[in-house]
Predict the structure.
Amino acid sequence: MGKKISFRKVEFERDVEMIHSWMTEEHVHPFWHLNIPLVKFKEHLKKALNDDHHTLYIGCLDDVPISYWEAYWVKGDVLEKTYDASPHDQGVHLLIGDKEFLGKGYSLPLLREMVRFQFQDERTEKVMAEPDIRNEKMIHVFTKCGFKSIEPIVLPDKTGLLMTCEREEFEKRWTP
């Protein structure tokens, strides 16, 4: 790809307006449901940043912010009740923000690096995802990364496709 991938933790003051603008993009809001006024989004983001079962990141290419990530522990999340979760399963949510970065092949390398980061916790044997069942592009990216489809699940804000990426499969696929 020829670009440096990096992740940094979300900082409220620096990032809130940028993330909010991404949430209003036509390719984002049908799946994230956060196309809300900035004042309400600020409340949402503050709450999310204070929730200790997940960590929010900005994904960058050559230090340019292009994506938003939520890496989380499945235990304590609504997802926990949808399958037989292990204590150290992690989950991931993501979006590519600015539409100028869409369709350029960035999603897979970014996802691969985030999942690699999540597997740095030696206790984690699988990373879970539940993309909106209508989001065929993201389901395709998750599949290319090594995630396997399990089944559709009904969540409070969507019908998602429950997907899992097992450590062994990921390492077999992506370890040089």
